[in-house]
């Protein structure tokens, strides 16, 4: 998209409910809901909720019939039981495990987050707004019949399932979280209407130990899944090189009617749970690219969610505020100072020192895979070529 168009408001529905912060596993759990509250406060501090074309919305919690678009009735009932008796875990359904702790609001909070993403899908499909964001969402590890990786209900998968129910014939999902988007891939493994693309740290070094390049879809949907596992330690140049070596070509071939994206912030170099070395500025660049790709290949229909991210103060609020600004057509200047009222709120909630600017102070750059060729001795290029060879021929493309 030309630069002049990029700053034009597209129409954004921003979904938020303060009760989403009740998705709280408790003290000591890395998925601290403070990251959500601080993101919303930073979005507000930059005036994005009152920007032209932005509508702030809160949707009802997803009901059982909606949850059953992806999850089994038995699983939904299991979540309800654990909510009523959190001291009695249900390990068969992944509830009360070492990573997905049980808590009284586990069903209500999870269903509320899911409801926002489903409503985001409805708003975009019905033309109420070109873009929709639910940064509290992106809980991509939840499976049809079990919780996994801090995720109870799989809101991106539910949003996609609702789009299909409404009549969408081609939906693309792009996941740039550091962890493989395994739950969304599983939900649509054998459905040719959905293309799932995941860039993530190699399964050899990180949960959930899936997402190899050879995972390309079920027997009725060959090429419907694309995976690019990245070597631990990959930084901005490699991450951006990998993204641009795979995602644009696949979207151009698939021509989705809607683009759904997951923007886990845990690729960042400061994230305590993973091993990539990506900057806030590169995360912002990928959000801009996905915005452009939605306009280029999906008639502008774009639903963006959050995801992982455990650097609660320094990273998550800034990267998701950039995401909201981009989706609103009001991108936040990376050189901007973080507003003083927000810094005070950071100190009040966390007693930590807040970041002073909306940048890590770097200018992301990369060597384009198509222009600069393949280095057979480079582990990143080996991973890129493996992914291209595995999936591109299914779409009639040369690897």
UniProtKB/TrEMBL annotation:
Residues annotated as domain Histone deacetylase: 29-324
- Keyword Transferase present in the record's keywords: the answer is no
> What would you give as a GO molecular function for this chain, any one?
histone deacetylase activity
- Signal sequence range: none
Keywords of the record, alphabetical order, are:
Acetoin catabolism
Please state what the protein is called: Acetoin utilization protein AcuC
Keyword RNA-binding found: no
Quote the pathway field: Ketone degradation; acetoin degradation
Q: Give the GO terms filed under biological process for this record.
A: acetoin catabolic process; epigenetic regulation of gene expression
Q: Give the similarity note.
A: Belongs to the histone deacetylase family.
Species in which this protein is naturally found: Kitasatospora camelliae
InterPro entries given for it?
AcuC (IPR003085), HDACs (IPR000286), His_deacetylse_dom (IPR023801), His_deacetylse_dom_sf (IPR037138), Ureohydrolase_dom_sf (IPR023696)
Organism's domain of life?
A: Bacteria
| PANTHER family in the cross-refs | HISTONE DEACETYLASE HDAC1, HISTONE DEACETYLASE HDAC1-RELATED
């Amino acid at each position: 998209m030309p630069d002049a168009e990029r700053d034009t408001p597209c129409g954004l529905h921003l979904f938020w409910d303060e009760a989403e912060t009740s998705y709280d596993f408790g003290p000591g759990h890395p998925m601290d809901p403070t990251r959500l509250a601080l993101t919303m406060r930073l979005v507000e501090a930059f005036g994005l909720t009152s920007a032209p074309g932005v509508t702030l919305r809160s949707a009802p919690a997803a009901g059982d019939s909606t949850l059953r678009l992806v999850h089994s009735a038995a699983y939904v009932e299991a979540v309800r039981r654990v909510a009523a008796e959190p001291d009695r875990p249900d390990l068969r359904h992944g509830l009360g495990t070492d990573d997905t702790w049980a808590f009284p609001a586990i069903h209500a909070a999870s269903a509320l987050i899911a409801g926002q993403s489903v409503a985001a899908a409805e708003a975009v499909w019905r033309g109420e707004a070109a873009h929709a964001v639910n940064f509290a969402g992106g809980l991509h590890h939840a499976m049809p019949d079990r919780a996994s990786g801090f995720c109870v209900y799989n809101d991106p998968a539910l949003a996609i399932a609702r789009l299909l129910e409404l009549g969408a014939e081609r939906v693309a999902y792009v996941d740039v979280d550091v962890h493989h988007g395994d739950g969304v891939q599983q939900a649509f493994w054998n459905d040719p209407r959905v293309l799932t693309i995941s860039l993530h740290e190699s399964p050899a070094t990180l949960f959930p130990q899936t997402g190899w390049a050879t995972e390309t879809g079920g027997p009725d949907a060959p090429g419907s899944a694309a995976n690019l596992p990245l070597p631990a330690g990959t930084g901005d140049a490699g991450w951006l090189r990998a993204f641009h070596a795979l995602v644009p070509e696949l979207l151009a071939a698939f021509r989705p009617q809607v683009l759904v994206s997951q923007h886990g912030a845990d690729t960042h170099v400061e994230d305590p749970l993973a091993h990539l070395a990506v900057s806030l500025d590169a995360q912002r660049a990928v959000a801009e690219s996905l915005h452009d790709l939605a306009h280029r290949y999906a008639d502008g229909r774009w639903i963006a969610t959050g995801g992982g991210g455990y650097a609660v103060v320094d990273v998550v609020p800034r990267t998701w505020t950039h995401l909201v600004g981009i989706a609103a057509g009001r991108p936040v200047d990376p050189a901007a100072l973080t507003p003083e009222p927000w810094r005070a709120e950071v100190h009040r909630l966390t007693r930590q020192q807040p970041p002073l600017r909306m940048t890590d102070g770097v200018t992301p750059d990369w060597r384009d895979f198509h222009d600069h060729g393949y280095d057979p001795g480079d582990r990143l290029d080996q991973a890129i070529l493996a992914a291209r060879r595995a999936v591109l021929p299914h779409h009639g493309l040369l690897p």
